[in-house]
Amino acid sequence: MKKTKSREQVKQILMNAREPLNAQDIFNRDFTGLTLSTIYRTLIAFEQEGLIKKEVSPITREATYSWKDDEEHGHILECVKCRKQIRLDYCPFEGVNELIEEKTGFTLDDENHVLYGVCKECNQKLKNNVEN
Ligand SMILES: [Zn+2]
Ligand SMILES: [Zn+2]
User: Fold this and answer.
1) pLDDT tens per residue, range 1-50
2) What's the 72 CA to ligand 1 centre distance in angstroms?
3) Nearest-ligand number for the alpha carbon of 81
4) If you measure from the C-alpha of residue 86 to the centroid of ligand 2, how many angstroms do you get, rounded to a whole number?
5) What's the count of helices (H) and strands (E) in the chain, helices before strands?
6) Fewer Cβ within 10 Å of end Cβ, the chain: N or C?
7) For the domain with range 3-67, which CATH number is right: 1.10.10.10, 3.40.50.2300, 1.10.8.60, 3.40.50.150?
8) What are the start-end ranges of the E strands in the chain?
């Protein structure tokens, strides 16, 4: 199975779930043939990208995952090279809004949640190309 497909599938299962799920729950709900190791790998990737919330039970030590909803104000970083999206849990403009307004009277429109740039991996590739 293609990597993007498994990502999409795990994302759908987590988004549709009302409660946090562990990897086994996701495995049980999946009908596309994901293996447990694929699910674990996908969950780790999602966690690193800040897309999901991981909770570890203090009693069973079991990790459960839930998709972060978009209600809290945050931003998406999108790479213009590979189109990867990374979620930022906080607003980098907090305080900056006030500063800009104070200096210029301009109020920043902070409704556009996607910030464009170049991700770590693509920056690394660019660097390597220059060096070679
Ligand atoms: Zn990139
Ligand atoms: Zn913001």
Assistant:
1) 566 889 999 999 999 887 889 999 999 999 999 999 999 999 999 999 88
2) 25
3) 1
4) 15
5) 5, 5
6) C
7) 1.10.10.10
8) 52-56, 63-67, 75-79, 85-88, 114-117
